Amino acid sequence: MRVAIAGGHGKVALRLTRLLHERGDEIVSLIRRPDHAEDVREQGGEPVGCDLEAAESDEVAEAIAGADAVVFAAGAGPGSGPERKETMDYGGAVKLIAAAQAKGVSRYLIVSSMGADPDLEGDEGFSVYQRAKGKADAELEASGLDHTIVRPGGLTDDPGTGRVRVGENVGRGEIPRDDVAAVLAACLVTDSTVGKTFEVVSGETPVDEAVASF
């Protein structure tokens, strides 16, 4: 499988790149900064310069040309203001949707957020973020693409356990980024996740089994 990852230098994205490379997939990693290219290559990805905020949809489409699936793992980041959350967490996801549609890439995974809600009120940073993620999820659901929306709990850099709990509502919890990447990798080869939205935190069930059973 050839997979294009938006936000290719992110912490989850780099872990996903390594997992996909190890199982024999090809990875195109969309990155904004040229100095991130070597980090991507070290994990087995092919870096492609593409600033999702500044690029036009046709530029994004060219960057993902030939992909079998796309993964939106980009984000404005915790230190960003409300405007960037709107243009990146929402706008970037929408550009990738348009690019996937233009290139006939039907499979689209998005790393969302537990509590994402397009109708959430409030102007403080976290509310803006949750609203932007919710709007992106809603756009993806309406896109007609074979989508999966993954909503992890609090992300940590602890070593992955390979065991998770998934469901429509799993309650508050944390999850290592290693395990989020493993869940995404499993979703790419599990057809039953198409059209599904689920939360995921650390748990007791092996990743492949948990994903297949949802």
What this model shows, in words?
By secondary structure, this protein is α/β, with parallel strands linked by helices. The chain contains seven helices and eleven strands. Strand 5, helix 5 (125-141) and strand 6 form a beta-alpha-beta unit.
Summarize the entry for a quick read.
39% of the residues lie in helices and 24% in strands. The chain has 214 residues and is of the alpha/beta class.
Features:
39% helix, 214 residues, alpha/beta, 9-stranded mixed β-sheet, 24% strand, 7 helices, 11 strands, single chain, two-stranded parallel sheet
Strands side by side in the biggest sheet: 3-2-1-4-5-6-10-8-11
User: What's the N-to-C terminus distance?
Assistant: 23 Å
Number of strands: 11
Oligomer: single chain
Helix content: 25-40%
Low-confidence stretches: none
Topology of helices and strands:
Elements: E1 2-6, H1 11-22, E2 26-31, H2 37-42, E3 46-49, H3 57-63, E4 69-72, H4 82-103, E5 107-111, H5 125-141, E6 146-152, E7 154-156, E8 163-167, E9 174-176, H6 177-188, E10 196-202, E11 205-206, H7 207-213
Parallel strand pairs: 1-2, 1-4, 2-3, 4-5, 5-6, 6-10, 7-9
Antiparallel strand pairs: 8-10, 8-11
Helix pairs in contact: 1-6, 3-4, 4-5, 6-7
